[in-house]
Design brief:
By secondary structure, the chain is mainly β. It has 3 helices and 8 strands.
């Protein structure tokens, strides 16, 4: 293994789930990420707790599947606090930073039909409870 490979942690999970309301009562619909993913030419950053001044890695793969926004990411420094908390399963929430392009406001919720995706974050408390890391290597 190379030195670089020894100094990263890779993980897979879902940053968002379709058709399930989050704590802010937003519901992401299938296809909401399609346009932004098709236009993306650079990897998305992986941030710590949505802090733009705390990048911790890179999103290697991001795609919609039947369940939601699936990501494979890497934490660049295996010795970092974020990596330790991830390994210990003390932090395993995922979230994403976005701007709504097409959203329909209803009385008690908002449908997100198209969004611009800016980043994915490793978070302590995701707004969508099921948005989690599922595999760490």
């Amino acid at each position: 293994m190379t030195e670089l490979a020894n100094n990263i942690i890779r993980f897979a999970g879902y940053a968002g789930l379709f058709d399930i309301p989050d704590a802010d009562r937003d519901i992401i619909r299938r296809g909401a990420f399609a346009s932004t993913l098709a236009q993306r030419s650079e990897p998305l950053p992986l941030l710590w707790q949505h802090h733009p001044d705390q990048p911790i890695g890179t999103i290697e793969m991001v795609a919609e599947d039947a369940r939601g926004l699936r990501v494979i990411a890497r934490v660049e420094n295996a010795n970092s606090r974020a990596a330790a908390l991830l390994r210990q399963k003390k932090v395993n929430g995922l979230s994403f930073g976005y701007r709504a392009r097409v959203a329909h406001q209803h009385e008690f919720w908002r449908d997100l039909r198209a969004v611009d995706l800016f980043e994915v974050s490793l978070v302590t408390h995701p707004l969508q409870h099921g948005a989690r890391v599922h595999f760490i290597s």
